[in-house]
Each structure stands twice: as C-alpha cells, then as structure tokens.
Specification:
By secondary structure, the chain is an alpha/beta fold. The strands form seven sheets. The protein has an eight-stranded mixed β-sheet with strand order 14-24-23-16-17-18-19-15. An eight-stranded parallel beta barrel has the order 26-27-28-29-30-31-32-33, surrounded by six helices. A five-stranded antiparallel β-sheet has the order 1-2-7-5-6, with helices on both faces. About 45% of the residues lie in helices and about 15% in strands. Among the domains are: about 200 residues, Dna Ligase, domain 1 (2-Layer Sandwich); about 100 residues, 2-Layer Sandwich (D-amino Acid Aminotransferase, Chain A, domain 1), CATH 3.30.470.20; about 130 residues, Phosphohistidine domain (Glucose Oxidase, domain 1, 3-Layer(bba) Sandwich), CATH 3.50.30. The protein has 36 helices and 33 strands. The structure holds adenosine-5'-diphosphate and magnesium ion (MG) (2 copies). One magnesium ion binds next to loops. Pfam families: PEP-utilizers, PEP-utilizers_C, PPDK_N. InterPro entries: ATP_grasp_subdomain_1, PEP-util_enz_mobile_dom, PEP_util_AS, PEP_util_C, Phosphohistidine_dom_sf, PPDK_AMP/ATP-bd, Pyruvate_phosphate_dikinase, Pyrv/PenolPyrv_kinase-like_dom. Belongs to the PEP-utilizing enzyme family. This is Pyruvate, phosphate dikinase.
Length: about 900
C-alpha cells in the first residue's frame, strides 16, 4: 500500500487514503486539500502514520520501499520548485514536520531549513542575493536540528547567541549582520562537535533521514505521552511526517511569518485574529522571541500598540490572506487556525485546521454559523464538545465585587480562577495533589510545564502573546490564562514574585480574570452561571433533537433547584442516606442501628419520620409535576456508626444505654467487606420497619405537596441491590401496603412506581423475572461496574491509572462505562426487562450518566433517560442530542 503521498505542484487530489487524516495526519491531509483548491502551498510529501507505527514496532528501521518512495517524492518537490536537494549552487531546502491525526500543540518537533551545509549555504547566499538571510537560516537549522534530532541542549545555543549579541551590544536578533551569523554558525558547529565528538552532519540525505527518524521517535517522547494521557489520545495512532519545500519569512522586511484564526478563538467573535512577525521564521511567533505584532489595524488600535499591523505594513499580502481566510472558512465550514509565511511579498499557506476554541467561542461560532447559513442546526449541535460546557457551568467572578488589580495582561484564555501562587510545574502538581488550588506563575511556559498547567486552576505568564504556548494550551485545557502580564518578575531563588510595586511570595492567593486579562490580589467573590444567550439557544436546539430525557442526581432542594434551572426533567437518583447524616439526625439514626430489637428501632424511626418527610416535601415542591426516583436506604449500616469516645458518650446520653453496651453492639455490626455485606434491600428484608418509615415519609410528603400546590410529583420508589425476584416481590408488597395506608389516611390517591436498581450481575441476568415485579429499572452502573469487574471503586485509584496507561482499560471504567463488558449486561437486562414488561421505564443513575461516551451508549440500547449531577445536566442534554443525531 502507498506509504508516501505528494501534494502541491501537479499532484491530483483523488486518493481517498490521502484525504484520510488517520492515514496522512491532520497537517498532511489539510496541506493536500489546500493545494487542491488552488491555494499557494509549498509542494511536499507525507509519510503515513501507518509507516510510523510500523517503524516504532520494528525497532526503528526504514524499509527499502520507503527509501525508494521518499526519493521519488523528493523529485516531485525538486521538479515543482526547480531546485535540487543538496545542490551547492542553488539548493532546495525543506522542513520536516510531524502531524498526528489530531493536533498535539507543541508536542512534536519541527525542523526547518533542512538541506543546508557548508557548501549549500554559499549557494543559498548567491542564489537569493542575500547572504545574511542564508547564514541566518543556517544557524537556525543547526540549532533546531541539534535540539530535535541530535538531542543536544538548546540552552547551549541560546547562550551562545546571547553572548554574541551582548558582545555587539545588540538587543534584537534582527540587528545581527551577515558576519555575525557566520561567526555564530562557527561557534554552533564547535558546540556540536564538542558535545558529539563528531562534526555536524553535512550529508543532506543523512540530515533528512535523521529528521524523519526524530519525528517518528517523538511520538513516544514523554511530553507526547503526557499530552495523550490528558487528552485521551490512544498511543497506537502514530504520527505522519511531512517534508515540504521551505518558504522564507526571514528574507528581509517584505517577508514575515504568522499565525491566525479566522474568528476570535476566545470569544468567538467574527474578526480576524492573529499575530505576525516581519523578517522572522516559523516558531519565532509562538516562542515569544520578539513581541509579535497585530494582524489587523483595528486590533492594533484597540490595544494601543505602535508597531504596524500586517494590514498596514503589507496591505497586499494581507488582502490575499483575508481572501484565503474566507475561502477556507467556506470550504471547511468551520473556524480555521492558520499558519502562513510571506516570502518577498508573496503569501504561502503552511497549515490549516479547525481551531481550538473556548466553550464560549464554540457556542457563539456554532450559533453564528447557523445564522450565516454556513451550517445547519444539527451540525451546530454536533460541533460543541459537551465536556467543554463544563467551563461555563462554574461560577464566574462577580462583576460587582471589589478587585485589587495588580496588573493587566493579555486575556489569553477566559474564565476566572483563584488559588495560591506556585512558581513551577512540579510544585503545582504537588500542591494540587494535596488538595490546594494553585495558580501557576511562569515567565513563559513550555511543553515541560504541561502537567503543572493541568494541575493549576489558572496560568499567569510574564511574557508571550495570544498564541504563545501558555495561551494555546490553556485554551485547550479550559484553564483561565493571562499571558504577557507587564510588570511581573519572578525570583526563583527566594520563591517570590513582584507585580508592579507589590511583593508576593509563593503560597499567596491570586485571582485571574482570563476574559479581561486582570491579575488580582486575594480572592474575588463569584456568581453562579446562567444558561442565557448562545448557550440557551444551543440547548434549545439540542432539546429538539434528543430522544432521551435528562434527569438529575440530587438530594437537597438547592441541588434540585439548580438542576431544574439547568433543564433537568426529574430526579433520577435521590440518595436518602445522605439525609441521614445531617447533624440533628445522626443520633436518631445511630439509635436505630444500635437498637437491640424491632421495638427499639421503631422508637428511633418514629423520630426520623417527620424529618425525612420534611426533606421529601421540600424536594417534591421543587420538582412538582416531574418524576422523582427515590432510593430507599442503601449503604452498609456501619457507615453511620459512632467513632471515638465522644460520639459514643453523646449517644449514651441520648439513648440512656451504657457506652459499653453500645460499643459491643457496634462491634457486632462490624463487617469484613461491607460493600458486599448487610446493605441495600438486605436492610429492608431484615428490618422492614426502616423501609416502611421511608415509604411512609415519601407518600405523606407527596400527598401534602399535591394538596398544597395542586401539582403532585410522581414518586418512583427504588429498591437497591436487588439480586432476586423474591426480594423485590416482598419489598414491593411492603411499599404498596404503606402507599395504600397513607392514601386511605389522606383520602387521595397518587400515581407512583416501584422499581429497582440493576447493579448486580445476577440482577442483569435475571432481569426478565425481576421485571415482573418492577415497573422501572435504573442501571446503577457504579456498583454494576464494581461487581462486574470485581474492582472496588474506593480502592482502585492505585492500580487504575497504570491500567489505563498500559491500555488495559481505554479509560477509567468508573468515569466512562466499560461498554464492552458492563455494557453487555446493561443491554441484556434492558432487552430481557422489555420482553417481560414492554412499557418498563429504563434509566441510568451511575456517574456514567454525565459522561458523553456512556450517554451515547445509553441511547443505543434505548434507555428512556439518563441522570447526572446538577452541573452535568446541560452536558448530558447536549450529549443525548448528539447521540440521537
Ligand atoms: P507545529 O505542529 O508545532 O505547529 P509545524 O510543523 O506547523 O509545527 O511547524 C512550525 C512552524 O514552522 C510553522 O508554523 C511554520 O511557520 C514553520 N514552517 C514549517 N514548514 C515550513 C516551510 N516549509 N516553510 C516555511 N516555514 C515552515
Ligand atoms: Mg512544534
Ligand atoms: Mg503548526
């Protein structure tokens, strides 16, 4: 099968494999596509991701076939450009670029200006008529190649450059003259020879294969692995390699390089957005070597900046760029993230891809593009990543709260964050692991800081623009970020920080407003989020397209209210035991547990009844008219037992029973494996009076709410941990009897259901029989995962992470449903349940109800609803719509 694809020149764009990002990677597929629609793309070729996987598997050897195909593809570039690789008179130079299936910013390394050596540099100088440019390119090449391919410390080269500039009294690289670069190249070659014991490779073919090898190898670099782990990217995809003719942004003042977005990736506004640098190459913009300039006049003026925007400095190239922006947006029907270079006035496109965006921007763009007729409502719903909504579902800074603003930098990634200052990534990780909220403060960030950025609530950098590493990564992670903050200086020796006139130390609290770029001392008050504007619009569209209902897991009136505001259509799981922990009640609960007989238990339960009834009354009032699944007491009783002398003494006082007797009774209740012990419906079987009290509280509260408001909730009484039909038969009879009693007392009948959780493998297998007694099933996938895998949720942290790393589980099965395994039980139980009782209601109430991948599965097996925690309800609504589309 073809392993190398060419693009540009006269390459036809017809091969399906070349268009497939899984084969040619995102960068390669899009370069070929841009070339095919007539955009100016330097010619090149792509080695497939499959070849990378093969290479990594076979211990890093290239096949003869590959060598032959690469040689042929190189000829394609040579023919198109009219120069030859390694030609001492007028050499072709290439870049060697990685490009995985999805973009991994800053993860894989690029080598520019490859093909230069002591001979070709002279040819480049002569052919271009610009020796300074040629030597600038050569020194860049030696530094990049030494860093990326030869594995030398780039600090050595930076230091040499700093010294060279200092000697000359220069501040900017642009002040360096031809001779200065030439001298530096000599110095660089010495550094390489010293470190390697052999000279810098002069053979251009060896250079090329070295770079290809380095790109392949970088797939397995630590940085790449960390990024993949944080972003759920499988380790077996591999990266493609793109080899492309160089174009030069460093050929003087009519040349430039830049990065741009067709819309503002932070706000979603329809304005061109980006940065460029005159007389510069490639990563100068991202690396923050010089402060980049604005793309548009409007943006420059808004920022009050002096250096001319591209629109002003290079009006023709800018006009061409603007034309390309519009063309690309119409072609891809999405916001594009673009890299370009201007060589002596001519625009070249070096990359395009759908741009990363904040959640706010994603919503605005999706809604706007429907308005512009670019995409349909369905596409808009599919465009927004449900998990990204999480960013918008958390409190934001109160606009009326006082702010002690220390400095204002660039609004690089929106959102608010407060936390304690940490000055390096490792500290950020350590502090956050012990539960601290931290703000990572750096001069600038690099890929080595990723783990710390992930651990931090927000990121502040002293340097860097809107497309700096910090800004790009923070936006991708949904972390608020302020970059390029003026007046910030960091002293790593004393672990202190100065912002303007103020002295701060590591550990002090800071607040960031990533939308305004503000950095504030101390913590600033926050307000709850709202589903207004574009968010509201998109949710409406989502609701129109989903089949499954979305409920919430909630047990307090406040949570219920929040969930209803977020669009919950009922309660999917109300855990009654949470109500038992309240301060005023725990002693009555303990009294009940430690009672020696039924009479003692009933006495304690009588105290709990009014409390529990009041709880349900409040919840039902909020959820009036909606179904409310209430789970009867589930946890092992020992969870409620008193701990320590003080609690026993207090209980002895309340109950009048001696401490010794209480202790003995507590010892009797000890269990070796409580999760599989005396819990769930087993409590109801052995102590029916507990479930009686709970059922009474539910029905009395429902009647009272119906009476008061005229709108009754629909209680769905759920019996936990059922394994057999007989268990449910007994407990259902109990609930029905109590309901009958209460309805008779209150002289009113209400609709209600009795059903069960399916959370044991036996229950799933016997679902047909169990359905004869149940009018609904709710899949308790937390316990079902635990019992199916034989993995204790509370003890799994230690081995699950390595399990995921080694690919044993694709994801943590407690976060994302193990569809292959546990999913089979869900599917089978749904089928058998429905066969026995066609109108049985089916839902899910485990944590998985808020996970988009698991929600998609629930839709496939035909569940009626999913239930998620209040803040996840909008995520579930969107995910349910995407599943249905
Ligand atoms: P990344 O994936 O890290 O963005 P790229 O492969 O896109 O890496 O390369 C980084 C930068 O190098 C690009 O933005 C571009 O400016 C520059 N570059 C890459 N290839 C070429 C080329 N053929 N000519 C000129 N510049 C290039
Ligand atoms: Mg890079
Ligand atoms: Mg790039």
């Amino acid at each position: 099968e073809q392993t190398v694809f060419t693009f540009g020149g006269d390459t036809p764009h017809t091969n399906a494999r070349q268009k497939d990002k899984t084969v040619t990677g995102g960068k390669g597929a899009n370069l070929a596509e841009m070339a095919s629609i007539g955009l100016p793309v330097p010619p090149g070729f792509t080695i497939t991701t499959e070849e990378c996987v093969r290479y990594l598997k076979h211990g890093g050897d290239f096949s003869n076939e590959l060598r032959a195909e690469v040689a042929k593809a190189l000829e394609h570039i040579e023919k198109t450009v009219g120069k030859r690789f390694g030609d001492a008179a007028d050499p072709l130079l290439v870049s060697v670029r990685s490009g995985a299936r999805v973009s991994m910013p800053g993860m894989m390394d690029t080598v520019l200006n490859l093909g230069l050596n002591d001979d070709t540099v002279e040819g480049l100088a002569a052919a271009s008529g610009d020796p300074r440019f040629a030597w600038d390119s050569y020194r860049r090449f030696i530094q990049m190649y030494s860093d990326v391919v030869l594995g030398l410390d780039h600090g050595l080269f930076e230091e040499a450059l700093e010294i060279a500039k200092e000697d000359k009294g220069f501040y900017n690289d642009t002040e360096m003259e031809c001779e200065d670069w030439q001298a530096l190249v000599g110095e660089y070659k010495r550094i390489v020879a010293d470190a390697l014991g052999e000279p810098f490779p002069q053979d251009v073919s060896r250079q090329l294969w070295g770079a290809i090898r380095a790109v392949f190898d970088s797939w397995d670099s630590e940085r790449a692995k960390v990024y993949r782990r944080l972003n759920d990217i499988p380790g077996d995809w591999g990266t493609a390699v793109n080899v492309q003719a160089m174009v030069f942004g460093n050929m003087g003042d009519t040349s430039a390089t830049g990065v741009a977005f067709t819309r503002d990736p932070a706000t979603g506004e329809k304005v061109y957005y980006g940065e460029y640098l005159i007389n510069a190459q490639g990563e100068d913009v991202v690396a923050g070597i010089r402060t980049p300039q604005y793309l548009t006049k409007t943006a420059r003026e808004a920022a009050g900046a002096k250096p001319l925007s591209m629109e002003e400095a290079m009006p023709e190239a800018y006009a061409e760029l603007a034309r390309v922006f519009d063309l690309l947006e119409r072609h891809y029907r999405d916001m594009q993230d673009i890299e370009f270079t201007v060589e002596r006035g001519k625009l070249w496109m070096l990359q395009t891809r759908s741009g990363k965006r904040t959640a706010t921007a994603a919503l605005k763009m999706a809604v706007d593009m429907v308005g512009e007729g670019l995409i349909s409502e369905e596409e808009a719903v599919l465009r927004v990543d449900p998990m990204a909504l999480d960013q918008l579902l958390h409190p934001t800074l109160d606009p009326d709260a006082p702010r002690d603003v220390l400095t204002t930098g660039l609004p690089a990634s929106p959102g608010a964050a407060s936390g304690r200052i940490v000055l390096d990534a490792d500290t950020a990780e350590q502090w956050s692991q012990r539960g601290e909220k931290v703000i990572l403060v750096r001069v600038e960030t690099s890929p080595e800081d990723i783990h710390g950025m992930h651990a931090a609530q927000g990121i502040l950098t002293a340097r860097g623009g809107m497309t700096s590493h910090a800004a790009v990564v923070a936006r991708g992670m949904g972390r608020p970020c302020v970059s390029g903050a003026p007046g910030v200086s960091i002293d790593l020796k004393t672990r202190t920080l100065r912002i303007g006139e103020r002295e701060l130390a590591e550990g002090d609290t800071l607040t960031l407003d990533g939308s305004k770029g503000q950095v504030m001392a101390g913590e600033v008050a926050t307000v709850e989020p709202e589903l207004a504007g574009d968010f509201g619009t998109l949710m409406e569209w989502a609701d129109r397209h989903r089949r499954m209902k979305v409920r919430t897991n909630a047990e307090t009136p406040a949570d219920c209210r929040m969930a209803r505001q977020f669009g919950a259509e009922g309660i999917g799981l109300c855990r009654t035991e949470h109500m038992f922990f309240d301060a005023g009640r725990i002693s009555a609960v303990r009294e009940m547990i430690l009672a020696e007989n039924e009479q003692g238990r009933r006495a304690a339960l009588a105290k709990l009844l009014p409390e529990q009834r009041a709880d349900f009354r409040e919840i039902f009032a909020v959820m009036a008219g909606l179904p409310c699944t209430i789970r009867l007491l589930d946890p092992p009783l020992h969870e409620f037992l008193p701990h320590g002398d003080a609690e026993f003494a207090e209980l002895a006082e309340v109950t009048g029973v001696g401490v010794d007797r209480l202790r003995r009774r507590a010892d009797e209740l000890h269990e070796f494996n409580p999760m599989l012990g005396h819990r769930g419906c087993r409590l109801g079987i052995t102590y029916p009076e507990i479930y009686e009290m709970q059922a009474r509280a539910i029905f009395e509260a429902a009647c009272e709410v119906a009476e008061r408001s005229g709108e009754a909730p629909v209680p769905e009484v759920m019996i936990p941990l059922i394994a057999t039909r007989r268990e449910l038969e007994l407990l259902r009879a109990l609930v029905d009897r109590v309901a009958g009693e209460v309805f008779a007392e209150k002289a009113r009948t209400l609709e209600y259901l009795v059903g069960t959780m399916i959370e044991l493998p036996r229950a799933a297998l016997m679902a047909g029989e169990i359905a004869e007694e149940a009018t609904f099933f709710s899949f308790g996938t937390n316990d079902l995962t635990q019992t199916t895998l034989g993995v204790s949720r509370d003890d799994s942290a230690r081995f699950l992470a390595p399990y995921v790393e080694k690919g044993i589980f694709a994801r943590d099965p407690f976060v994302s449903l193990d569809i292959e395994g546990v999913g089979q039980l869900v599917e089978l139980a749904a089928e058998r349940g429905r066969a026995a009782r066609p109108d049985i209601k089916l839902g899910i109430c485990g944590e998985h109800g808020g996970d988009p991948a698991s929600i998609a599965f629930c839709d496939t097996v035909g569940l009626d609803y999913v239930s998620a925690s209040p803040y996840r309800v909008p995520i579930a609504r969107l995910a349910a719509a995407q599943a249905a589309l």
